[in-house]
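Exercise 7. Given the encoded structure of a 353-residue chain, write a plausible sequence.
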């Protein structure tokens, strides 16, 4: 297997590594994964990485007195506090990746991490936290291996590992537009790790603002992982996967010619399709809040009247991402702070980086 090693490595007794990773916002959504395979998506997805919304993770490793088959001790601190929920996620992650990073079995770990945004509230915190952790692990791998590991390989394996922690995390390894999941029209796309979007991108799409309206800061009652599972017996699932793949084809030509209006229509359609799947799952549920809808209606009205290019997308939660060209930033931001501010708890200004 490509990511397994046969060559030799040395082990340090102790070390510390710190990495930062940005969150991302999907334009074409990953929703649904194979039930009989580990973290393999049922359609391809594409996202922008976001500046300002990121995780910083410090990984401390101490050699064990006696190596055994398991990773015996992991301590996790999120913003300085022990976090049982994240510990469970991290333990499962280490368990999954130890096959590909067998040197990890020699260590006990302490993980100290913080996000610049609220976790589990629809801003992809699992994406940035799992990708930051995967980057830390690849930094350790780089230190231990006695031969040179190329940057491209380190990234590829980091994305591969991050995927095993959280699907969307594999896209956070790269800046800009990133694709994960096989798509016939995208060369190099595959289900195991993400790749930077390989085709021409019109300059309007390399200069997009992303303003996040935090509508609800409380952790979600249903996690994304639970939501994905509901796609396995969903009556509309097959059509949804086909539709996502068709939308990817449309996006490729939109990105090339720079049609911002078609781009807007497509990302709003994707966002609402994702939430339609959620609302029609069995059991059904709802991530949107009244203020999510208030914002959507207000954006539509403003767009019609002002003719400004402002479009929304939603992730797995109630919060809204507003995308618009940097050239329209001043006017739109002013409007957001005057007309939308009452609907949200917080505004995070970021850039699709
Ligand atoms: C709606 O990556 O959080 O944000 O793989 O179970 O950890 P797991 O799920 P996760 O799902 C993200 C879903 C989404 C769409 C997307 O980011 O593509």
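Solution.
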């Amino acid at each position: 297997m490509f990511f397994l090693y046969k060559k030799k490595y040395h082990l340090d007794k102790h070390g510390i590594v710190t990495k930062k990773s940005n969150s991302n916002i999907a334009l074409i959504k990953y929703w649904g994964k194979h039930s009989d395979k580990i973290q393999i998506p049922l359609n391809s997805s594409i996202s922008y990485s976001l500046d300002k919304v990121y995780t910083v993770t410090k990984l401390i490793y101490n050699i064990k007195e006696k190596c055994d088959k398991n990773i015996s001790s992991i301590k996790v601190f999120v913003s300085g506090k022990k976090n049982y929920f994240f510990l469970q996620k991290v333990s499962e992650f280490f368990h999954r990746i130890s096959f590909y990073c067998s040197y990890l079995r020699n260590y006990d770990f302490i993980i100290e991490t913080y996000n610049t945004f609220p976790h589990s509230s629809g801003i992809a915190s699992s994406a940035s936290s799992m990708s930051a952790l995967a980057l830390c692990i690849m930094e350790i791998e780089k230190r231990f291996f006695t031969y040179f590991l190329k940057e491209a390989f380190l990234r590829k394996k980091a994305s591969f590992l991050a995927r095993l922690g959280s699907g969307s995390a594999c896209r956070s390894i790269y800046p800009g537009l990133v694709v994960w999941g096989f798509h016939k029209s995208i060369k190099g796309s595959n289900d195991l790790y993400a790749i930077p979007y390989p085709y021409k991108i019109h300059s309007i799409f390399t200069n997009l603002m992303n303003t996040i309206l935090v509508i609800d800061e409380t952790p979600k009652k249903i996690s994304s992982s639970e939501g994905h599972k509901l796609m396995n017996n969903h009556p509309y699932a097959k059509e949804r996967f086909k539709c996502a793949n068709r939308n990817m084809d449309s996006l490729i030509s939109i990105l090339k010619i720079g049609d911002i209006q078609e781009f807007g229509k497509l990302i709003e359609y994707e966002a609402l399709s994702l939430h339609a799947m959620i609302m029609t799952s069995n059991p059904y549920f709802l991530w949107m809040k009244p203020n999510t809808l208030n914002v959507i209606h207000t954006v539509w009205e403003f767009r019609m009247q002002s003719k400004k290019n402002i479009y929304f997308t939603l992730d797995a939660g109630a919060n809204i991402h507003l995308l618009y060209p940097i050239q329209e930033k001043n006017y739109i931001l002013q409007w957001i702070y005057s007309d939308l501010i009452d609907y949200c708890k917080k505004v995070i200004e970021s850039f699709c980086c």
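Remark. Residues 26, 29-31, 39, 45, 124, 126, 166-168, 224-225, 228, 274, 315-316 surround DP6 (CB under 6 Å). Students should compare their own answers with the one above.
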